[in-house]
Amino acid sequence: MNWHLIADVVAGVLLLAGALLSLLAAVGLLRFPDLLARMHAGAKPQVLGLLLILVAVGLRLRSLHDIGLLLVIGLAQLLIVPVAAHMVGRSAYRTGEVERDDLLTDELSPAVDESGDD
Amino acid sequence: MSAESVAGPRRHRFRWPSVLVLTAVWVLLWGELSVANVVSGLAVASVVFAVFPLPPVAFGGRIRPIGLARLLGRFAADLAVASVEVAVLALRTGRRPTSAVIQVDLRSDSDLYLVLTAELLTLLPGSIVIETRRSTSTLFVHLLDVRNEADIERTRRQALEQEARVMHALASSAELDAYRRASEGANG
């Protein structure tokens, strides 16, 4: 049993899966109708795609300090992407970039209108 | 050592754990554990926290291994499901996905758990947090591809379950008791 070969094969599979998810995230960015829908594409498949690629790189490099660096990148993504999506979504909603009439339910509108800012 | 002098009791905003974490990141970025890297990391971290002081975040909880394992395991599964869902939606032709924005009143009143729940919700299937109200621990969540009221109520329930998982992973017994009372009050 050759562990290096197995690690390489797994890394290859993860790399392809990560690349595919990133591609589909890009397709979503192009095809979704409005900004908030696009943020979903920018957040979920993009983050998982990158995480899979980081794991693949880690399996291929197999050195401790490279893996440490990959961990930092992965954790930073998990923390920063939701915050970025939040900030973009928040300002889009408040500046009227979101078609509120297209929403099935909108429970934020009254809250924003009454309080202005928080 | 400059790092020690700024850490004196008079600088109450200065917090060692944050500095140590930032130093660890610095050392990882350089890729080598050496005296020079640690010292320069401490210096940079001290300057960063002196120039950009953060508001204090109270963590009065304790880490519960089983709850934490459940939180992380469930999160990994949810992230995979969410990614595939959005990817499939991106490829689907025909009907445009309908969205909704809903309000979720969380039961805990801690900033930390509010932030963690919001962060995780954005990576979960169907939801993105677009507005938070700290005073009432309220999240406003954008939902992608909802068809009817039942979908909306299901997502609202999922958001509260996410908060419950965060609480069971990190909260102290007292926080958990207060949280349970708040949940019972909200349900009953």
UniProtKB/TrEMBL annotation, chain A:
Sequence intervals crossing the membrane: 6-30, 42-61, 67-85
Pfam families (alphabetical): PhaG_MnhG_YufB (PF03334)
Keyword set, alphabetical order: Membrane, Transmembrane, Transmembrane helix
Protein known as: Multisubunit sodium/proton antiporter MrpG subunit
InterPro entries assigned: PhaG_MnhG_YufB
GO MF term set: sodium:proton antiporter activity
Domain of life: Bacteria
TrEMBL record, chain B:
Name recorded for this polypeptide: Multisubunit sodium/proton antiporter MrpE subunit
InterPro entries (alphabetical): Cation_antiport_E
Bilayer-spanning residue ranges: 12-29, 35-59
UniProt main location, coarse: membrane
Homology family: Belongs to the CPA3 antiporters (TC 2.A.63) subunit E family.
PANTHER family recorded: NA(+)/H(+) ANTIPORTER SUBUNIT E1, NA(+)_H(+) ANTIPORTER SUBUNIT E1
Keyword Cell membrane assigned: yes
The entry's keywords: Cell membrane, Membrane, Transmembrane, Transmembrane helix
Any one Gene Ontology cellular component term annotated for this protein: plasma membrane
A Pfam family hit: MNHE
